[in-house]
Design goal:
The chain has three domains: about 35-120, Immunoglobulin-like, CATH 2.60.40.2700; about 135-215, Immunoglobulin-like, CATH 2.60.40; about 240-360, Immunoglobulins (Immunoglobulin-like, Sandwich). It has one helix and 29 strands. It has one helix at about 5-25; strands at about 35-40, 45, 55, 60, 65-75, 85, 90-95, 105-110, 115-120, 135, 140, 150-155, 155-160, 165-170, 180, 190, 200-210, 210-215, 240, 250-260, 260-265, 270-275, 280-285, 285-295, 300, 305, 310-315, 330-340, 350-360.
Length: about 350
């Protein structure tokens, strides 16, 4: 071999070694990575209806995609003859009027540093036309059926994605019929009044969207019981006598006398009483009359109870005391408490006889 041929052969060998270093030895695989490849088809979820939102899942991919792109298409009823929908490049899409009667497909493009791959979903159901809301669960009413209590209405559940919900309460007869709308009762809650005693209630819920309004009325409540008539005002603590009505009654709850023991030398007595009503609440403003019996032993003017229900009636001795000299062992006193202006026998009042010891040697 000539010197010139030897040089040429050496140059070829060096080039071969360089190529082998770049691509590796046969059977060792490529040094470059792979573009994404779909291993699970994208799927569309949601209600295929005008105005509703549908979404696509990317499916599954090999090649560890670093980003995804989306392209929605409008297809015929069988999922063919598809055409791209302009601007529909997000993972979700809200069908419009032009989509009604068509199916939808979406192509997902997955990318990584080595390239991209595509996969297209199966067609959705045909897009249906939007309609006014439809109820799937009726409204209901909860709460204590007592005058003064608060009732609460649920709106029920609706299809059609309502954009507005309104309430209207009605007062009905005991059977839930002959209903009349209650003025200004338009919130989800309602406070029962005396007008509802003996009646039932219903609530009508109206759901609205761009395609119309649908109203659905609840079943009637049970009958609101009539509150017992006591004549007592609500609340606790002191009662003003003017707030008591029949059939409320007054009560003489406590009675004492000063001096503790009445004798022949007693010329003035102080009678102390406490007047209550409605389960022991003190009454202010009740008129109290007291008279020892037999009559004309002691006497004094009527007095009015204070905020704690107490009153002191001061009486002076009269010539009828003692009623039976040396044989009288008690001073019996007739007490009457009443509401000023009421008939003492038929109004808000009470009568009682109390007795105190005497010592008459």
């Amino acid at each position: 071999m000539t010197r010139r041929n030897l040089a040429t052969t050496s140059a070829i060998a060096v080039a071969a070694l360089a190529i082998g270093a770049l691509f590796g030895q046969p059977g060792s695989g490529r040094a470059a990575g792979n573009a994404p490849v779909s291993s699970g088809t994208p799927t569309i979820s949601g209600t295929a209806q005008e105005g509703q939102t549908v979404s696509v899942s990317e499916g599954t991919w090999s090649g560890s995609p670093t980003s995804f792109a989306y392209a929605w298409s409008r297809c015929d009823a069988s999922g063919g003859s598809c055409s791209p929908i302009g601007g529909a490049t997000a993972a979700s899409y809200k069908p419009v009027t032009g989509d009604v009667g068509h199916t939808l497909r979406v192509t997902v493009t997955a990318k990584n540093a080595n390239g991209s791959g595509q996969a297209t979903s199966a067609p959705s159901a045909a897009v249906s036309k939007a309609t006014a809301p439809t109820d799937t669960t009726a409204p209901s009413i909860s709460g204590s059926l007592q005058v003064g209590s608060k009732l609460t209405a649920t709106q029920g559940t609706w299809t059609g994605s309502p954009t507005g919900i309104s309430f209207s309460w009605s007062r009905c007869d005991a059977s839930g019929n002959s209903c009349a709308t209650i003025d200004d009762a338009t919130s989800s809650t309602y406070n029962l009044t005396e007008a509802e005693a003996g009646a039932t209630l219903r609530v009508a819920v109206a759901a609205t969207n761009a395609d119309g309004t649908t109203q659905f009325t609840s079943a009637p409540t049970a009958v609101v019981p009539r509150a017992p008539v006591t004549g007592c005002p609500a609340g606790t603590g002191t009662i003003q006598i003017a707030d008591l009505k029949m059939p409320a009654r007054l009560s003489v709850e406590k009675s004492t006398i000063t001096p503790h023991l009445v004798t022949l030398g007693t010329h003035k007595i102080q009678l102390h009483f406490r007047i209550t009503a409605c389960g022991g609440r003190p009454v202010q403003g009740a008129s109290v009359f007291a008279s020892p019996i037999p009559y004309n032993q002691f006497s004094g003017p009527d007095r009015t109870t204070a905020a704690d229900g107490t009153v002191t009636v001061v009486e002076k001795r009269r010539h009828g005391f003692p009623a039976r000299h040396r044989k009288q062992h008690l001073l019996a006193v007739f007490v009457r408490a009443s509401k000023p202006g009421d008939p003492v026998l038929g109004g808000v009042s009470t009568r009682r006889t109390v007795a105190f010891p005497v010592n008459l040697p």
